[in-house]
Specification:
This protein is of the alpha/beta class. It has 14 helices and 14 strands. A hairpin with a 3-residue loop joins strand 13 and strand 14.
Amino acid sequence: METKRVVVTGMGVITPIGNTVKDFWQGILENKVGIHPIINFDTSNYRAKLSADVLDFNPKERLDAKAAKRMDRFSQFAVAAAKEAMEDAGIDMSKEDSYRVGVSIGSGVGSLMGIEREYDKLLEKGPNRISPITAPLVLGNMAAANVSMEFGANGKSIDVVTACATGTNSIGEGYRAIKYGEADIMIAGGVDSSISKFGVATFQALTALTESEDPYNASIPFDKRRNGFVTGEGAGVLVLEELNHALKRGANIYGEVAGYGATCDANHITTPKEDGSCAAMAMTLAMREAEMAPEDIQYINAHGTSTVYNDLFETRAIKRAFGDYAYKVKINSTKSMIGHLFGAGGAVELITCIKSINEGYIHPTVGLKEDDPECDLDYTKGQGVHMEVNAAISNSLGFGGHNASIIVKKWKV
């Protein structure tokens, strides 16, 4: 079967360090840390005190006001990021076959804040006082549905839910839809916004969240002082396009999606497989599809959550997949600046990879100061590095053992 080449022609983000790609990348260049004391609720009874919130987001400035009222915060993020990506790509839907334009935007959680809000009403005022549109406000698929409605995209519209791997799997499945001829354009990415009383309490109960109260020493992937992640929120959306379709309309091409690998540890509900073998296979499968060797990859954007086990086991996975070259490839974790965006994380991190390819810059793992003897690879400690990046791989590892890796490379005819 003949397959299609898939390129990236548009990008959009909502993040704790910038609500457009331009502002986000400026934040990256400044080593900006978007972590602050939790503002959504009283944390007096919580050990976790920090979050990575999206600030200065006004849905009325980014969305149709009437439509925005029918969306919870995570859907608003998704539509705003998708609008930026589609405008960036220059897509004119009046010139497209709407059945050849699809959406693959996943949310790992949906709207916990919306559920909490309406549940509180239920307890205080009874079942007849909750909003009649509660269900379509809070369901995870509504991010993809609202994006489809925003653009009149009648092609496949899916919500991939694989916890912290959601964004990467969503983009990977969007890539496959184009590669195998199901679509010409896929609006693909991830989103989450659940910095809620219940959400933070659940991860705190797992002892997965840092108890640090210092924003600059909280999300510190690969540092021996690391003791948990910082919960965050945001969205990342890419316009994926079949190469010839993009060329015919004279689109600006940021890069090519070259390979995608997905596996499952099938091991434990939260803890990754200790030897990293399944995460390594996700990277290996991506490289096989891309017809690349480890030496062809200059940069790995790691999942790098700042939890003890994740960073150690991902390090082992990289060593398995890359062999001796693991000590030569540049690695970093964008979560050191933006916290853990859950379903949005992989999408925003892939956009970071694409920007690194286009700008020739790999950011540092901000906050990494004290080396862990067992995490002994090059995690871009200290300062960022200006260098040519021809290809990069982005990793995402989700609870339940979901592993996903995507390779992007410079586009060449």
